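Suppose you are handed a protein chain with no further information: no name, no annotation, nothing but its sequence. What can you learn? This example shows the usual starting point.
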Amino acid sequence: MITIKKLLKRKTLLVEKRFQLEFIFTVVIIFLIAIVISLLNFTSFLSNILPQAAIISTKTRIILFLISTLIILSVAVIVTLVYSNKIIGPIPRLEKEIKEMTQTNKYHCIKVREKDRLKHFIDSINILIKKLQEESKN
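A reasonable first move is to predict its three-dimensional structure. Written in structure tokens, the prediction is:
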């Protein structure tokens, strides 16, 4: 069974807590607004075409719909957390290593996981670091 820890290979999911929580909150709010608007449109549509007795049985279905929506929302929060971690995860290490290099004038390439979303960006930084290493040798 694949766990979140195996999927991420990081010790913590919330690396930059404030940013990640704001990101998750934004996704959840957008999702909830879309669900509420859809639900209001659906119930308005049903009240125009169905008799009152049928609408009462439909309320049970709406409750089931809300429960399934909460389950989907929970999955969306987890996926958003994992995805935001892939974006934000390398940043603290990147900041630390760049700060260390500027203080010591000893340049080295920055390691990055293959599945990190910033891999291409960090690879570009590594190219710059290699050029700085070559210039410092001359």
